[in-house]
Amino acid sequence: MRAKQIIGPPLERFQAKVDYTDTCHLWTSRTFRGYGYFRVSGETWLVHRWIWTHTNGPIADGLHIDHLCEVKNCVNVAHMHLVTPLEHCHQPHSKWISKEQAARTHCLRGHKLEAPNLSPYQLRVGKRKCLSCARARSLAGHYGHDEAWIQEDADRRYNLLEESLS
Predict the structure, then answer these.
(1) Taking Cα atoms as reference points, which of 58, 67, 76, 62 lies closest to residue 19?
(2) Model pTM greater than 0.70?
């Protein structure tokens, strides 16, 4: 049996699908991976982005909405704020990257975790994966080399990066 479709202005349809608790305003309709969504004028919106836009205006390119309450289906605008992807992954409650990983300055083999030993994407979002070691592991897997070869090749690649900056 299909749920009864609510017809009317988007805000009224939105509000009819929210359970207003003492703290969070919980989306009770359709979700995907925990995030609510609904359609407005033929366009599908994530509900937290729609209510933010409806309440505060457009979200600038490159910004994320961070749920301070850590509840994905919460649509309480007071529980949201705009952050960059890098800030988002460094939030204390972030599931994107651990605080320990974010604080690392060197990989397990001692290579610095900074440009150019991190990709532009990693620098933008705050990830930490040594490119020298990753390239060496990839080659070792392809050619069947052992761990000692990986260490030697990763160090060689890292030293070449360091020399190119000097």
Answers:
(1) 76
(2) no
